[in-house]
Design a protein that fits this description.
Number of strands: 0
Order of helices and strands: HHHHHHHH
Helix content: over 70%
Distance between the termini: 20 Å
Radius of gyration: 17 Å
């Protein structure tokens, strides 16, 4: 990452601790949760050797929507639908990034697998979902499934292609972690409370956006590969 990266881990830790403390740590959670996302966003934006300017812009815009989603979901607002909408737009923006330089979809089996996993989770949660949330949640799961499938398929298509492959692997890991984080969040919120839920949900969420942000970076040691990179 770039300047200020040493602040990211303490900010993430503070957000998790604040969430685990409940009401006693509310102020810490409210401050640290968006701060950690903001630091990751700034790190992606300030990378000096990006994979491409278009790719970086799309990733940064997606992270900005994640930041807005974080704010919507903070107490005392707890605005679930606006937050869901922000993250849906974030995933669409990530999808735009992951579609660059590859055919769409990048690899059908990955997309179908992610959609099948998402459909399985929705089916399991369906009896517990309020009727007003069934359509928005289903749409969200479809979008994140396509986004994750595209990221994983892109990594598969670009395997063995130097710096491009490295960035694609980070993006695929981030997308998969995002899918896991949202699954844990939905299960905890709508089905049954998870032990130490904040630790697992926030831990996988920040790992997801950190990996996606890191996918922007083109290693200087791979400068010989830069001629083959878009942008």
């Amino acid at each position: 990452m770039a300047r200020g990266r040493w602040l990211i881990v303490p900010a993430v830790a503070a957000a998790i601790v604040g969430a685990l403390l409940g009401e006693r740590g509310l102020w810490l959670y409210q401050a640290a949760k968006p701060l950690a996302t903001l630091l990751i966003l700034v790190g992606a934006w300030s990378v000096s050797t990006a994979l491409s300017s278009c790719y970086r812009t799309a990733i940064v815009v997606g992270l900005a929507w994640c930041l807005l989603g974080d704010i919507c979901l903070l107490p005392p607002w707890n605005a679930f639908l606006p937050g869901l909408g922000c993250f849906l737009i974030a995933h669409l923006t990530f999808l735009v990034a992951f579609a660059q330089g590859v055919r769409r979809p990048a690899w059908w089996p990955a997309t179908l697998l992610c959609l099948a996993l998402g459909a399985t989770v929705v089916a399991a949660l369906w009896p517990d979902l309020p009727s007003t949330l069934r359509a928005p949640v289903s749409a969200y799961v479809a979008v994140i499934g396509v986004m994750a499938g595209q990221a994983i398929g892109r990594a598969w298509r670009w395997r063995g292609q130097g710096a491009k492959a490295r960035g694609a692997r980070f993006a695929a890991a981030g997308a998969a972690l995002f899918l896991l984080s949202d699954t844990l969040l939905a299960w905890d919120r709508f089905h049954a409370p998870l032990p130490l839920a904040s630790l697992w949900i926030l831990g996988t969420y920040y790992a997801a956006i950190a990996c996606i942000a890191h996918s922007v970076r083109l290693p200087s040691v791979a400068s010989a590969d830069m001629r083959g990179v878009e942008g």
